[in-house]
Every structure is written in structure tokens, then in C-alpha cells.
Amino acid sequence: MSGVVGHELELKLELTPKELQRLGAHPTLEPLTVGHPVTRTLRSIYFDTPDHLLRAHGIALRLRSTDGGQWLQTIKVGNGVDGLYDRKELESAISTPEPNLQAIGDRKLRRKIEHAVRKSTLEPLFETVVKRTTRKLHSDKADLELALDEGVVRAGTAEDKLCEAELELKSGSAVSLLEMASTLFAAVPFRLARLSKADRGYNLLLGREDENVVPQRAVHPALRGDEACADALSLFVESARSQIIFNRRTVLETDDPEGAHQLRIGLRRLRSALRAFRPLDDTPALRELEELAQDVARTVGRLRDADVLIADIFAQVANHMKGEPGFAELRQSLLAHRIKTRNEIRQALSGEQWAKLQLYLVLWPHAITENVSLQMPVRDFGTSALRKSWKKVAKLGGTIEALSLEERHEMRKALKTFRYTVEFFGSLYAKGKVARFVKELRELQEVFGYINDVVSAKQLNAIAHEYCPGDQPAQRAAGYVLGWHDAQAIHSWAAAPKAWCRLKERSRFWC
Q: Do 76 and 59 meet the contact criterion of CB atoms below 8 Å apart?
């Protein structure tokens, strides 16, 4: 088999072991079964990047051991809704328990995966081991397959039991799947499985018990233009508040690295909104809220930096240095450093600093609605705020080739603040012009973001010495990683002036 592309439509149910046994003995099964039921033990290993980029793209990649020592690589694209999974599925036979992207028969999907992991590495995250009994079913309307699974999903030392049934349509219509499901499951007290095996593995890996505790991205309020500035600012703060509070919970209750990332973004969005409206409302309360948000952002930033060290700095180089001495030990050091940092951040996010910020987040939006200085139309103010934010970017950009490290850091922050300001007021302007401008802005931000990550990565040496004292291969590996990124940073920075020129020449939509 090489690069077989297919489509999967299946109904997935959660059962107890007794319910599974009862379903396996259903009287309707025998006359529908083609051949004999087949029982096998299946071990499946799921791969992704350290920061789960495949999952972010709705892709699951697994390797399953087969008879004869071969491996079956399967890629599934898409998600399920209320137990029904309608997904694209690609299978390839490979010889080793390592992903082989060249075996993917769908060129477009292969390129999408290669692009997602080009700056990282694929590694085994979790596995499932199940005893599966499979029956091929045939009716006058359809061919189906019934799989009864009982086993476990494992992520490190964590383990969770699996007990489920899958009814997959092989040929025929979706109505046939419904009819067969009604015949087999009507008398069984089943529960629709809202999580795939991959979903359950990620939840176990991330320590997530509540499937609803997932990172929340920014939701940008759309403005009409006739709102008063007070109402617009209140909308922006409430939007950031939701992102901040929800992602704090994600950081506290799960190990999902995206939680810290989105929490820091929420705090930056809040600070950018406050800074944008400060010319109209420069009060002690606004300053206090901004300082609290900045302090918490610095705290959370330590966890985000620990995540970046693993997913972006280490993984890029490790992908090219598999099996080299010291890299496995260095990775374990980075994981230990992240665990220690996460525990410290969780304690800080339950302390007095957070409590005070939370009070401001809840109460401050109500305090600004009656502020007379914020009653001017937001459309008039939005243009002024964008001009002011762009002015700082343009000043630094004018000497981009001569910027010092400190000035590059300042421009990175200025670009972020400007980007959030665009997101706040962008709905007041022509959508197409805003989108084209933001595209150029993002490309420039990526350059500055990477340069900043490389500067922050200098702590890698200290981490290697702290967690691997006397381990010279691990310390040499740290030095190699830093040297590799220093060289990459020089190459990346060379693109900054051209990226700046493209942005500067792009029509400024607010003028």
C-alpha cells in the first residue's frame, strides 16, 4: 500500500465493558456479518510537534504496528460533531516507526504538513493499545465495518481506559449508516463519543479533564462607527477580559502551551486598548489597570518563553540532529525547566496580584461608560489612534538597518501594539485594504519575533548547566542550538529592510 487516499464516515460510541460485550452478542450481527470476526491487539503511536501544530490544523498523524513488523501510517483530517466523524483519511505502509511525509499520496496535504513542521520536529506524544474485534457487515443497501475497542490511551505515565464502538460506512449512503446504527444501538444505553482517540490522547497529555478547558483566541468586536469611545473601549476591554480569564483557567488546569500564549495575548490586547484611549482617559485607575496587566504579562511570559525554547528553539535543530549525543538530555532539561516554571506561574496566577487585576477587569468597564471625555464618536478617534501608533513604528523603521538590539526590541513591541490597534479599529475601514496591510505587517512581525526568541534563548546554557551539571554532551548540544539560531537570525534579519519597505509602501487604509 502506498499513499492510499480515502474518506471516513463513522459513528463513534462510548460504552462500558458490559455494554460492549452485550453489543458484540447482538442477535442481528450474525446474519449481517461477512466472514468471521477478527480480534487483534493494535498499538497506535500519535505524532505531532512539541507545540501541537498538526492538531492546530485539524490533522492527526499516527503509526500503527501491523503483522510482519511493518507500520501503517495514517493521517486523518477533520473533526467530529456529536459522535459522527466525517474525515479525510490517508494510509501508507512504511518500514520504520518514524513518520514518512514523502509517503503521503495527497500532494497538497503533504505540503501543508511539511509547511507546518518545517521549523520543528515530529515526536511521539501518546499511544493507544486496544483489543479490537472487527466485523464486516453487509446489507442490501450498504457495506459497513463494526469495531469494538477495549484498551487504554497512554501519555507518559498517565493512562486512561478506552471502551468504545465504531460503525464505519464503507459503501452506500449516510442513510444506510443511520439505519444500521438504529438496528444495532437502539437497545444499548450508549453515549455519543465527542472525542476521538487522538483528542483523548491530547487531553491526557495536557492534563485536561474538562474537554471545555481549551485555549481561547481573541474575538474582535466589530464596530459600526457611531459608538461613543466609552462604549468601544468597554467592548475591547470585555473582549480581552474574556480571553484573559478563560486562558488563566487553561494554564491552571492543563499543560496546554497554547493557554499561556493566548493569556499573554489577551493581556497585551488589554494594555494596547488602554494605551490607545489614554489621550482621552488618562486617569489613575487606567494607569493602575495597565500596570497590573503588564506585571501579570511579565509573569506569564516566563512560561511562554519556556514553551518557545522547546517548540521553536530546540525542536528546529533537534529535527536535524536526531540521535546526536546530548540532545535527549537537553530536551529533558527543558521539559523539567518548563514544569518548574509552570508550577511557579500557577502559584502567581492564584495570588494577590491576579486577584486585584481580576477586580479591575470586572468592574472597570462599568466605570468608564459615564466618562464625559470618552463620548466622542469612535470613528473620529480611531483614525487619530492609528496615526499615533503608526508614528512610533515609522520612526524606528526609518533607521531599520542601523537598529541596535534594544531598538529592535522596541520596534517589536511597537509593531505588536500597532497590530492590536489595527484589530481594534480595523472594522471601521475597507476590509480588503485592512487585510492586505495586516498581511505585510505580520511578515515583518515574524522577523522581529524570531530575533527576540533567539535573544531570549541565551538562557539555554544556564538551563543545561542547572539540570545537567557535568553533562558535557548536553552542554555542547545547548551551544550548538544557540550557534545554529545565531546564524539563522543573521539570515532572517537580512530580510527585515525589504519587509519594512513593503509595509511602508502599502496604502495606509486609515488616511
A: yes
Closest CA to 168 of 184, 152, 156: 184
Phi and psi at residue 153, to the nearest 5°: -115, 135
Give residue 4's pLDDT band: very low, low, confident or very high (50, 70, 90): low
Give the whole-angstrom CA distance, residue 445 versus residue 417.
11
CB 65 within 8 A of CB 55: no
- The one-character DSSP state at 188 is S
Predicted pLDDT at 281: 85
d(CA 211, CA 214): 7
Of 226, 196, 236, 473, give the one whose Cα is nearest residue 333: 473
pLDDT-derived band at 5, boundaries 50, 70, 90: low
Fold of 4-205: Hypothetical Protein Pfu-838710-001 (2.40.320)
The Cα 229–Cα 375 span in angstroms is 6
Please name the amino acid found at residue 342. Answer: R
Upper half-sphere CA count for residue 55 (Cβ side, 13 Å): 22
pLDDT digits (tens, 9 = 90+) for 116-144: 999 899 999 999 999 999 999 999 889 99
pTM of the model: 0.85
Pull the grid cell for residue 264: 499573554
Domain boundaries defined on the chain:
4-205, 229-505
Question: How many Cβ atoms are within 10 Å of 36's Cβ, its own excluded?
Answer: 8
Q: Amino acid identity of 196?
A: S
Cα distance between residue 415 and residue 409, in whole Å: 10
Task: Tell whether domain 229-505 is in CATH 1.40.20.10.
Answer: yes
pLDDT in tens, 69-79: 789 999 999 87
429: three-class secondary structure by DSSP: coil
- In 3-state terms, what secondary structure has residue 98? coil
Alpha-carbon distance of 253 to 263, in angstroms, equals: 13
What's the CA gap between 260 and 345, in Å, rounded?
A: 10
In CATH terms, are 4-205 and 229-505 the same topology?
Answer: no
d(CA 228, CA 244): 24
Q: What is residue 1's predicted lDDT score, i.e. its pLDDT?
A: 46
Q: Which residue has the cell 485607575?
A: 285
User: How open is the CA angle 69-71-76, to the nearest 5 degrees?
Assistant: 160
Secondary structure class of 65 (helix, strand, coil): strand
CB-count exposure of residue 103 (10 Å: 0-12, 13-18, 19+): middle
- The 3-state DSSP class for residue 215 equals coil
| Cα 282 from Cα 500, distance rounded (Å) | 32
